[in-house]
Amino acid sequence: MNTITLNSPAKLNLSLNLLPHRGEKGYYRVLFLNTQITLFDTVHVSKTGEKTVRINNREIDTGENIAYRAARLMIDRYNLTCGVTVNIEKRIPLRSGLGGGSSDAASVINGIDRIFELGLDDGEKLSLARKLGMDVCYCVIGGLCRIEGIGDLVQRVESGLPTLNILIATPNRRKPSTSWAYSILDEQQIGRAVEKFDRLLDGIRRQNMEQIVRNLHNDFECPVIAHYPWLETVATAMKNQGACKTLLAGSGLSIFGIYDTANAARKAAQTLESEELDCFPAETIPCALSLYPSP
To answer: Which DSSP symbol is given to 293?
Structure first.
């Protein structure tokens, strides 16, 4: 096998808790419940004759791109005699809180593992991911996962998440960075909703949609919306179009809404889409989609 094509799904934090004490390197310890949705980039990974890495996408700055760093890391760690070309078809908005770059890097790890027949287990993949970013740790495993530590401890949750009909609303304006989002946190206000985490897991085990929706949580939501109050207008508009729940996606600035049906989410997207707001109907997916080739 010389080329592989992988889906790189956006990640969604169903529960994002930042604990008010620091762990390794001063990072907050976390308690997340993550899943993936059917909004995805497509990543093509190919062997090349030269021991180099190329990224084919005009939107991506190769010098800073996490997918490039993932490929470079694997070539060096495993002393690969060939290089790779990575072609990324972007659909996940940049800096939107949806983990698109991390998902692309995870697909590069999984793709190189497959085409070079390295036979890496989850532990080895996580070792690579830790050198790239904490979201990569989740994305390289994928599916419904409990995330702890500083984001590097990833455990699959066996209970199946019912399909959630999602609408992602992404403003054209982007937050400065994820680091900025961490910098505006009030440590007195985070880590206060961890009891919702167990209730959310219980709702998933029971397949109780009302309990699931009621216990979604994101510690970034209040501080980020305080800096960008027009996000509250977006959330209100989504509710007016039938969303039973809205929440900030990751560290923003996307807002996601949950709808009773996929058709309701699509209709809301048609109404809300504008020059300032991109809308993406999607669904949660039950398996680790990034681990499998795209059809």
So the answer is: B
Tokens at residue 221, please?
Answer: 């939501």
Q: What span, in angstroms and rounded, lies between the C-alpha atoms of 194 and 104?
A: 30
Beta pairing class for 245-248 and 255-259: antiparallel
Give the integer Cα–Cα distance in Å for 217 and 67. 29
pLDDT at position 95: 84
CA pair distance 14, 28, nearest whole angstrom: 18
Between CA 176 and CA 199 the distance in angstroms is: 33
Q: How far apart are CA 171 and CA 157, in angstroms?
A: 32
**CB distance 216 to 14 below 8 Å:** yes
| The pLDDT of residue 251 is above 70 | yes
- Evaluate whether 183 touches 220 at the Cβ level (below 8 Å): no
Q: Write out the catalytic residue numbers.
A: 11, 135
Of the candidates 103, 243, 101, 229, which has an alpha carbon nearest to the alpha carbon of residue 173? 229
How does DSSP classify residue 257?
A: E
Going along the chain from its start, the domains and CATH numbers come out as: 3-158 (3.30.230.10), 165-285 (3.30.70.890)
Give the integer Cα–Cα distance in Å for 247 and 249. Answer: 6
**Is beta strand 83-89 parallel, antiparallel or unpaired with respect to 245-248?**
unpaired
| Structure tokens that stand for 1 in this block | 């096998």
Name the nearest CA neighbour of 164 among 94, 221, 96, 244.
244
Residue 193 exposed, middle or buried by CB count within 10 Å (0-12, 13-18, 19+): middle
Q: What is the pLDDT of residues 30-80, one digit of tens each?
A: 999 999 999 999 999 999 987 677 776 655 555 568 999 999 999 999 999
Question: How many Å is the Cα radius of gyration of the chain?
Answer: 19
- Smallest CA-to-CA distance from 103 within 150, 134, 135, 55 is with 135
Rounded to whole angstroms, the Cα distance separating 188 from 191 reads 8
